[in-house]
Amino acid sequence: MIVSILGARPQFVKAAAVSRALAEAGIDEKIVHTGQHFDDNMSDVFFRELGISAPALNLGIGGGSHGQNTGRMLEAIERALIDFKADHALVYGDTDSTLAGALAASKLHIPVAHVEAGLRSFNRQMPEEINRVVTDHVSDVLFAPTQTAMTNLAREGLTHCHLVGDVMYDVALHYGAQAEARSTPIAGLPAEFALATVHRASNTDDPVLLAAILEGFEKSPLPVVLPLHPRTRKMIGSFGLAIPARVIVCPPVGFLDMVWLERRARVILTDSGGVQKEAYFQGVPCVTLREETEWTELVEAGWNRLCPPTSARAIVTAIEEALASSPEPVTLYGDGNAAGKIAAILAGRA
Ligand code: UDP
């Protein structure tokens, strides 16, 4: 029995590919949802649209500090792993749910498999970086999406690593046609637009950077469509900032609507890890509103450019440069069957 620990939007997207591959390989899986994301449009819509089995258990933990959440999850996941007689725990990415799942299982001597292992920003100010490093070091099987990730793991002396490719590429291939068949999620969408997402703490928790981002979006050469993450909405309110009238703001959209928007955007502006890669999967240039990225290959290939959002002018210049760029196609994230490879390796360990 594999017990998968999920809690946040990017994990639901990744699990869509892996859970399907586990079922096809005849592997029993139970999903524990920590409750980190709980709104319909941050959680349930992904289970519905992507055909992920309903969680066997929802811990309903969220809303606290990193320490509070991780501690409460650790205790509850330990109980779930015992109750469900887990022989492996499967964790994804870099959230507090990932860390709590990996710690709970490793302390019970239940092997931990980590999907999206080896990602590094080399910035320990990011809560995600702490989660990734600790998770990789207590895991027994590391599924790396890229050669860069494999090199990072080797540098830290970690073995049991498998270069499988990126499960998000599997997802992009699998759901592309379904997303394309949808109708517009936003009434009155302009013919040409930039699509933006912002939710990293380094941006949302800094009033100067958040104000510069909003001003950069206002002055963007193309109107910006902004499905607004609840944390960002909250911080805009608590800093007393205003969303400029020219920005087309909406609540977070479901995954298929997001892909529909990505495919039509002329440029994507984001601080999301997943959205940087989806931009590339859909052939759209990207501006990453951060100082560094874990997905360095896309910067090297010219698909992505880093823009620390220190001023509106810097953001506008980066958007102009991205719009003028014409990067060449490259093969970076595997063959679209990363999840199948993960399932085969896990089946071999059963
Ligand atoms: N996403 C979505 N709706 C939105 C914004 C993002 O479905 O309104 C999807 C996006 O397509 C990607 C995933 O959420 O698959 C990325 O999650 P997020 O940006 O929250 O996390 P990160 O990738 O930075 O860990």
What's this model, at a glance?
The chain has helices at 9-24, 40-50, 66-83, 96-107, 127-138, 147-155, 167-180, 201-204, 207-218, 230-238, 255-264, 273-281, 296-300, 312-324, 338-349, and strands at residues 2-6, 29-33, 57-58, 88-92, 112-115, 141-144, 161-163, 194-197, 224-227, 248-250, 267-270, 286-288, 304-306. It is α/β, with parallel strands linked by helices and 350 residues long.
What does this structure look like?
The protein is α/β, with parallel strands linked by helices. The chain has helices at residues 9-24, 40-50, 66-83, 96-107, 127-138, 147-155, 167-180, 201-204, 207-218, 230-238, 255-264, 273-281, 296-300, 312-324, 338-349; strands at residues 2-6, 29-33, 57-58, 88-92, 112-115, 141-144, 161-163, 194-197, 224-227, 248-250, 267-270, 286-288, 304-306. The strands form two sheets. Strands 3-2-1-4-5-6-7 form a seven-stranded parallel beta sheet, with helices on both faces. It has a six-stranded parallel beta sheet with strand order 10-9-8-11-12-13, with helices on both faces. Strand 12 (286-288), helix 13 and strand 13 (304-306) form a beta-alpha-beta unit. Helix 1 (9-24) packs across helix 15 (338-349). It is globular and about 55 Å long. Bound molecules: uridine-5'-diphosphate. The site of uridine-5'-diphosphate (UDP) has 16 residues, from helix 1, helix 11 and helix 12.
